[in-house]
Design goal:
single chain, 292 residues, 11 helices, 2 strands, globular
Length: 292
């Protein structure tokens, strides 16, 4: 295990962590503002990957296909999430969390069946354009070119979501409504619309995560299950509703799993879960302040 191998695994783990963060950021944003544990968040991630593949295929191999997929997939998943929120979820915000979990779990089953009906059970793959194929040397280590896109996506999403939450009127209203919805409602603000937009933002990020991961893995039914579990663990270990906690949790999860491949490959998948359990034993409320 030389320095080059460690550096390579750190870069790969960092790339994986950025995908986890993009998805977890949407989940923790919805948890922080709406107090909704969205179980079908993983289904939106899967839909984002399939939509990105569909759009890219429509371009018949043109290099612009991937970028079009990255643009369309998040918007499509945000539209799906907004439709569910407006028609059904908006009526349940005052219910207890168990009811919300059961409802979103049911939506997940419906969405997964719809994905199977539309795209079928066949594995799909999205090939990046020639400009993003091959590898580049980073710190003396060969890194796939597309991983540079992943490494850039995490910080961009973090800054953009923070600016939305703290520098825009809608973001400030969303944070205020999360603290005291009745008071914001009394001031004449349509809290329902604020919540709808906040939920759409979370769904947008789920779709973006799916579109970003599409060129790096097989696109298939069930790809949402592991990601959903990992995202919830990241949100919990980082602090419920805390954006920077989600970033810290994603880095912890991605890097420990990647380094585990060097230390003990047969049990690499268990490393991040063991570290997560250790962190929660020391800090049950997470690494950073919880919004709950």
């Amino acid at each position: 295990m030389d320095a080059g191998a460690v550096t390579g695994q750190l870069l790969v783990g960092l790339s994986r962590a950025m995908i986890l963060f993009v998805v977890s950021a949407g989940l923790t944003f919805v948890l922080g503002v709406l107090r909704v544990p969205n179980i079908f968040h993983g289904s939106l991630y899967m839909i984002g990957a399939f939509v990105a593949w569909t759009v890219a295929e429509a371009f018949a191999g043109h290099p612009a296909g991937l970028w079009a997929g990255l643009a369309v997939a998040p918007v499509a998943t945000a539209a799906v999430g907004l439709l569910v929120e407006r028609l059904l979820l908006a009526r349940l915000y005052h219910r207890e969390h168990l009811m919300l979990i059961l409802f979103t779990f049911g939506v997940m089953l419906v969405l997964n069946d719809l994905v199977k009906m539309v795209w079928g059970p066949t594995y799909r793959s999205l090939v990046p354009p020639p400009s993003l194929q091959g590898a580049v040397s980073v710190l003396g280590v060969a890194l796939p070119r597309f991983n540079l896109v992943l490494l850039a996506a995490g910080p961009v999403v973090a800054v953009a979501l923070w600016l939305f939450a703290h520098r825009t009127r809608v973001g400030k209203l969303a944070r205020a409504a999360a603290t005291d919805r009745d008071m914001v409602d009394v001031l004449g603000v349509d809290v329902s619309r604020v919540f709808a937009l906040a939920f759409a933002v979370g769904c947008f990020l789920a779709g973006l995560g799916g579109a970003l991961v599409a060129p790096t893995t097989s696109i298939t039914l069930g790809m949402d299950h592991t990601l959903l579990v990992e995202s919830f663990l990241i949100v919990i270990v980082g602090g419920l509703g805390n954006l920077w906690g989600a970033l810290a949790g994603s880095l912890l999860f991605g890097l420990t799993q990647s380094l585990g491949l060097l230390v003990w490959p047969q049990f690499a998948i268990a490393f991040p879960y063991a570290v997560t359990a250790a962190v929660l034993l020391v800090r049950p409320t997470g690494l950073m302040r919880s919004a709950w």
